[in-house]
Amino acid sequence: MAVQIIQDFIPSGRRNRPGYKLTPKYITIHDTANTQAGADAKAHARYLKGSTAAAIPASWHFTVDDKVIYQHLPLDENGWHAGDGTNGTGNRQSIGIEICENRDGNRAQAEKNAAWLVAKLLREFNLGLDRVKQHYDWSGKNCPRVLRGRPGGWQGFLAAVEAHLKPATLPKIDRTIGIHVDGKTTAETGYLINNSTYVRAAYLIGLIGGKVTGHGDYIDIVLPAKPGQAELEELRKKLKTAESDIAALQAALNQESQRKENAKRLLKEAERALG
Fold first, then answer.
1. Using one digit for the tens of pLDDT, what is the confidence trace for 181-193?
2. Strands 62-64 and 94-99
3. Higher confidence at residue 182 or residue 28?
4. How far apart are CA 47 and CA 69, in angstroms?
5. Which ranges in 125-228 belong to alpha helices (H)?
6. What is the CATH number of domain 5-165?
7. DSSP tally for the chain: helices H, then strands E
8. Which of 105, 182, 266, 267 is the most exposed place for a label (fewest CB within 10 A)?
9. Which pLDDT belongs to residue 165?
10. Can you give the residue ranges of every domain in the chain?
């Protein structure tokens, strides 16, 4: 699993981007408490760059919805999100994550995406699961309210984070499979796993002229460019020229064949005359 993270930072110098150095020791979970339709991660990114958030001041590091994650602050700068004061542990030593509540979103998926993000950050900063905190732990506010209000909600969220931290169990390879392209044997190897065949994506995309590059949590596939209209017209002209050349060649072959037939006929007539 991997979720796209879009960096859309609060401009430097604003009141809600204080710029104090942050060495993350905790990760703090919040709920946005904004159930309006459209109140997704992108909408909160706009809010944090606006005058209202700057005036409070309020800021955090990530907003997570059911499709994407927006990052608002660098991870070496603090935000104002924990409600425990200018020098509070939550504000000065924790990464703040808000989970969206927009009614037109999939809240369950947003929580899954947030669990993935938390696990990613725990690994990056070498932190244990005990370093994942609720906003409530710093200020006593009922937040994250959705997770806190659902029986077993917080424990279930931590379990989801822990599941991402466990080493992946690799599937058993039943056997290797040779790869043939256009009837020719290649050096590439495929694998049969649970009655399904697996071949490297980079190899398959490369066959059609594309490219695959790795980026840690995801791969980027670049497909070959489609020919433009000008290129198509040029190809059509070349095809017409080739067709004309083939027709001319066929006519020349026909003429040559006719000359041969005429020569044979004249030779036979000469033979009869000399008889």
1. 888 999 999 898 9
2. parallel
3. 28
4. 15
5. 135-139, 145-149, 153-165, 201-207
6. 3.40.80.10
7. 9, 11
8. 182
9. 95
10. 5-165, 175-222, 229-275
